[in-house]
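--- STAGE predict ---
source: upstream dedup step, 1 unique chain passed
mode: sequence only
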Amino acid sequence: MSKTTRQVRLYPTPEQSRVLMAHCQEYISTVNVLVAAFDSEVLTGNVSTKDFRAALPSAVKNQALRDAQSVFKRSFELGGVPILKKPHCQWNNQNWRMEGDLLIVPVCKDGKTQQERFRCAAVALEGKAGILRIKKKRGKWIADLTLTQEDAPASDGQAIMGVDLGIKVPAVAHIGGTGTRFFGNGRSQRYMRRRFYARRKTLQQAKKRRAIRKSKGKESRWMKNINHQLSRQIVNHAHAQGVGTIKIETLHGIRKGTTRTSRGAKVRKNNRMTNSWSFYQLSMFITYKAERQGISVEQVDPAYTSQDCPACRARNTAQDRTYVCSECGWRGHRDTVGAINISRRTGLSGTRRGATGA
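--- STAGE serialize ---
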């Protein structure tokens, strides 16, 4: 069993927004009061919703009590009693539901509990519904939907797929006997990264720190979305081809592979891209999505995978994007060579080097 969280944007009316804010403030106030009561031993033993008052639906009061108990337990690790400040509220799995583009939850309005329907982005819920958490972030209402999914049984496929990660080509996957497939548009992604970088540079010169932080957050969300799409495409391809194992290069020491001594502008630009590219995030996305499909994931040592000839094992340096073996004459795309060799590697050995597939 695995749990995932889906974020859904809510579009409440002004009146609904006021009701939701009052509801969230009442919720965190209740949790804070209960935590303080536990800390001062005003409430001890088996506490129920009958032991305190709150302008919340009974089911939400139950959830507030569970949250307060959880926060109080964490206070021993933190060395102090935390105080919740950001508006949010939670509902258990039996007290919310989705109907198309509507999220329906019970709220307390004018002293009475009633079902409120909030318009939201329509999403397909894959798995068993869990805790619902609604919060306000940067002026927007967001619903975090927790879903529990059963892991797929381990694949009985015998095929092995090697995945080579890079910048010019985000991901190259090779399956023995099937062939190679390229994923992502490296040119388009590099263009977007350069735009983000140029904008931040301009903002830095203008000393607009808040705008710089906002730009970084926007770029981070954009990269996360790209990595989700790429990882889903890669895992779907592996599942369709009957792959039982995905081998991916370990990313330990990726920043040590950058060139520090060269003065060339192109090398400095590639180093900046390599250091800031979210290879690790993409690797993690591939791992957990593959495991849900019953596909195992192994990390292998990527050293010289783009230099060893797949045919005769001679070591050569690729010229630009084309690899030509000086011994046997084998020709192919440089990243294809990397993916083929990764699919043949077993485990981690020797000196680990990160992916620098510029």
